[in-house]
Structure formats: structure tokens, C-alpha cells
Write a structure and sequence with these properties.
This protein has 507 residues and is α+β, with helices and mostly antiparallel strands. It is 35% helix and 18% strand. The chain has 2 domains: 187 residues, FAD/NAD(P)-binding domain, CATH 3.50.50; 262 residues, 3-Layer(bba) Sandwich (FAD/NAD(P)-binding domain). The protein binds flavin-adenine dinucleotide (FAD). Flavin-adenine dinucleotide (FAD) binds next to helix 1, strand 2 and helix 9.
Length: 507
Amino acid sequence: MQSNGSPPGHIVIAGGGSAGWMTASILLRSLGLAGSKITLIESPNIPTIGVGEGTTPLFKRFLKFLGVSEEEFMGACKATYKHGIEFPGWTGRKQFESYFHPFAAPSYRHFEQQFFSNCDRRRKGEYADTDPSNFFFNSELAKQCKAPVSGQSRNTENMDYAYHFDTAFLAEFLKQRCIAGGIDYVVDDITDVAVAENGDLDYLETSSNGRLDGDFFVDCTGFRRMLLGKVMDSEPVSYESRLFNNSAVVIRTPVPEEGDLPPYTESTALKCGWAWRIPLMNKISWGYVYSANHTTTEEAEQELREHIGEDTGGIEPLHIKLQVGRVTEHWKRNCLAVGLSQGFIEPLEATALGLTQFTINRFVTYFSRGGFRATHRGHFNDIINEAFDRTIDYIQMHYKLNTRDDTQYWRDCRANENITATMRNIIEAWQDPSADFMSVLKEEVHRSSYAPYSWYCILSGMGCYSRDPDGTRLDEPVNPYRDEVNGYPGHRSYLESLQIPLQRTAS
Ligand SMILES: Cc1cc2nc3c(=O)[nH]c(=O)nc-3n(C[C@H](O)[C@H](O)[C@H](O)COP(=O)(O)OP(=O)(O)OC[C@H]3O[C@@H](n4cnc5c(N)ncnc54)[C@H](O)[C@@H]3O)c2cc1C
């Protein structure tokens, strides 16, 4: 086995969900080009998790890395654009019933400083417009239901936006490309995983194809964690004391015949969790992520159906148990876990595929520097753990700041003192009018994947102000990008012009 950065002779990827095919795609263009043979095996009997339709702007970079055109991807995967997330119902505070967390590339944030200084004035008790929707380009694109392509050009290089897509179509799309690119594809069940005397993984035993040998193995078997589980020697870290949601129910409805498709995710707080609405070109996806310690499966399903607000009687729901946490050694010996097998943070900010992508990219970098050397694995695992843990802070902030009083669930979330020092310092600095909040923020979140503007958005959007302002504003605030955005094409009509056919199914 190699000890330097030369690629493994044969890499075996177990699992053909989003994580498996994203791993195969990236490895093919990196270690594959450097000489590794790559095989992906997936079960004909064990389905993929089949949800995960929301992304972050990192996914745009994934497509670019692969050299995939956006139109081709969007057409194949029934994709829509996503400019951010709307959060209705997370607080009971008047005038803070809902807020929008946009994506925002640096070159589209000309009014960010004004937003910051307005928030700082408001923290001191002065009246100022602090609604994040009024300062960012993507917020206005979302509000006007626009595609992020200007009438004159399709140059979206400097813009930040993401996509919603159908995960089953994504897996198929990436699979076809990987097979055409030369990977070996095996459809079979892994029945056992053999460990060699030195403790490395040796081979996979399969139902119909016998033994599948490899030099390096990537575990993309989802919550089953079939490969890493054989070499792990510590229990996964659970996040359940910080994030209470441990179940989900999903329902898909047909795309409405009329009307636009919102180019954003809506994440509405319900009684014991929150529900997403994600519009795709072939269905609308709805899911309720909730705490089974606070409600039952039946009640959650019923609440989701009521929230959808149309007749969903004939549509079968999908119920999912979530394992919320992460392993400590994502890369152990000659095995790397990617996707649900390495860990899962609930999907409030749709971060899972971004963490998947981050893991594979980092692995390629570290592997190229040091091959199988233990020190490189150690650094790598520290970085991935930090990426997971820092993401949690931002997610948990939504729960900690809620002001709902209708159920025990929301009271428990608010009362939960199991928060990090980073979260505590941020909340305290925000609520102290004399604090230089930006300095505190920069100190606390310089390694977070959430930029300062995202923290301002959540704290201001959820109305985390300790007192009412003096005075009121008379004019209705207007987003300064309003007229510019007006010239952008409508979301649905633009997608239809790409000949992405609408399919009105509910499956
Ligand atoms: C409710 C919910 C909502 C989510 N929403 C989002 C979101 O909006 N955005 C986001 O980025 N992520 C989201 N995620 C996470 C996202 O779905 C996953 O990160 C992603 O789908 C990757 O899953 P996976 O490939 O790791 O596992 P899976 O999809 O479970 O795939 C596992 C694969 O392993 C194979 N396998 C298992 N056992 C064997 C065996 N014995 N032999 C052979 N093959 C085997 C299976 O056949 C399958 O191909 C969500 C997850 C959940 C649960």
C-alpha cells in the first residue's frame, strides 16, 4: 500500500445515493485521472434515502468542477433555482413573523454595510429598517420570483445561488456521466466486509459477484455505515442534546398548473419542528422535521397534511428516522465515510450535500499531500469535525432564538442551555448595545461557513432586539435592487424556456 501521495490502485465506493455518485464524480476527475481504477457498488434492494432536494451555492461549484452545464443539469434533474430560505413562524414577535436568509456573493452586497449599521442602531434602541429582505440582491430575486440570469447575458459567475432538484434524477445523471467516464458499476448486495490482519479493510463480500477487492474504500452506505463501522473504535458523537429533531415525514404533491414557482425554500415552524416546501419541475416536496419526543408519527403526518392545505389523502407519506450526529474519524485506515455514513445535521439550512462535497474535496487535497499517512488523516478528521460542529451553531441558533409559546417543544428549544460558548457570546454581544458586535462576530465565526451577514440576518430577522425602538419610519422600505431585478426573467417561464418539461406527478 502506498505511503506517499500516489493514488490507490483500486478505489471501491459502496453506495449509490447522492453521496456515492458525488464521490465517484469528484474522484474520477481527480484520483481517477491520476491513475486509480474506481468501482461503485450499490444494492438493487436497499433504496437511497431519496430526499435532500435543497442545496447551498457550493453545489454550483461542484457542477463547475465537473464541467457540467447548468442547463443540462437543471433539465436532467428537474431542478429549480434557490436564492435562500424563508422562515415563517419562528417567533411570536410582532413584525418579525417571517424573514428571509438570502445567499449573497460579495459582488452583490453593496448595501450590506448599511444593513449592519441599521442593525447596530436598532440594537441601541433607535428606529431603523433592519429587515434583511430590503438589502440583498437575492432577497429581491426571490421576492419577485426571478431566475438569476439577466436578459442580456448568462454570466452568473459572480453570483451566489443554489438549486433544488430531484435526488433520484441527480443520482441517475451523475451515474451516466461516471459510467461514460470509465468507472466500473456493480449492482449487488454487500453481505460482509472483511478486515485484514493489519486492521485495514480487505474486501467486500457480495451476493452474486463474490469478493470485491480494493486498496481504498469509501463508505457511502448511508445510515447503515457498513464499512466504516468495521474499523471505527469510538462511538459517534450525538447532537441530540442540541438539536431535538429526530424524525421526518415527507409528502410530494403535483406542481400547480398555474402560477410561478418560488425560487426559494420555505421552512415554516410548526408545533414540534418545521416543514419545508421545495418546488421542483416535477413535484412539490414537503417535509416535516420534528421531535418524536414531543409528538407522535401520526400527529406529525396529520399536521403536515394540514399545513400543505390541499387534498393529499391519496398520497403515501415517507417516514424517516434520523440519526443526528457525526463520527469522530471520517477517514480511518483505508476507509473514508462520506454522506449520511459520516454524520447528519438536520436539513434546516440544507447543508448535508455541501458537507459531503467539502469532505471529498478535502480528502483529495490531503490524500494528494500525504497518501495514507496517519498525520494527514488526523488533520483531515479535525477539519471535517470542525465543519460539522460549526454548522450546528448556526442551525441551533434558529431554535434558541425562537419566541413561540404554543408548545412545550418550542419552550424546550429556547430553554436549552446546551449551547456552545460561541453561540452564547454572539447572543450576549448582540443584546449589549455598547458591544462592538461585528468585532465579536468576526472573532467568533471566522472559521464558520456562515459569513457575518448570515448572523446579522438571523438575529435581526428573528427580532432579537431587547427593547422597542424610539420612533417609527413613515415610508415603506424598498429593496435598492428592485428595479434592476425587475428586468430579470420570471423563474417558471425561464425554466420552461430551457425546455425543462413540467411533470405534474406526486411521486
Ligand atoms: C429528511 C431529510 C431531508 C434532507 N434534506 C436535505 C437537503 O435539503 N439538502 C441536503 O443537502 N441534504 C439533505 N438531506 C441529506 C441527504 O439526503 C443525504 O445527505 C444524501 O442523500 C446522501 O445520502 P447517502 O448517499 O449518504 O445515503 P443513501 O441515500 O441512504 O444511500 C445509501 C446507498 O447505500 C447503498 N447500500 C446500503 N447498504 C448496502 C448494501 N448492503 N449493499 C450494497 N449497497 C448498499 C444503498 O443501496 C444506497 O445506494 C436530507 C436528509 C433527510 C433524512
